[in-house]
Design a protein that fits this description.
Layout: E1 4-9, E2 12-19, H1 21-24, H2 29-35, E3 40-51, H3 53-68, E4 72-76, H4 80-89
Parallel strand pairs: 2-3, 3-4
Antiparallel strand pairs: 1-2
Length: 100
């Protein structure tokens, strides 16, 4: 079972590995509280090797938690697998994508 590796560095939250029902269940809720201390955080998904619907739901959960903390969250380097999953799930346009 693979896990997600998450590193926050200067307002960029780099995620690598898997975002699946197994890996997101291992991420502790208290971990993300400190992520949203920044006014804006970019979630870099460049190194995500696998994502399923649980991983997509977790990204929306992160977005919700960031909003509660008045943190602007954006996503960049969206893997093709995630783009397809977003389209299949009918949630196009709901994740704020950073095009920088």
């Amino acid at each position: 079972m693979s896990k997600a590796n998450i590193v926050l560095n200067h307002g960029t939250l780099a995620i690598s590995g898997e975002l699946s029902r197994h890996s997101v269940a291992q991420i502790k809720n208290n971990e993300y509280i400190k992520w949203f201390d920044h006014r804006a955080v970019n979630v870099d998904l460049r190194h995500v090797s696998k994502i399923d619907t649980a991983g997509l739901a977790w990204l929306f959960y992160l977005l919700e938690q960031a909003m509660k903390s008045s943190c602007q969250l954006s996503f960049s380097n969206i893997p093709e697998k995630l783009t397809k999953l977003i389209a299949l799930s009918g949630v196009d346009g709901l994740l704020p994508v950073n095009c920088d």
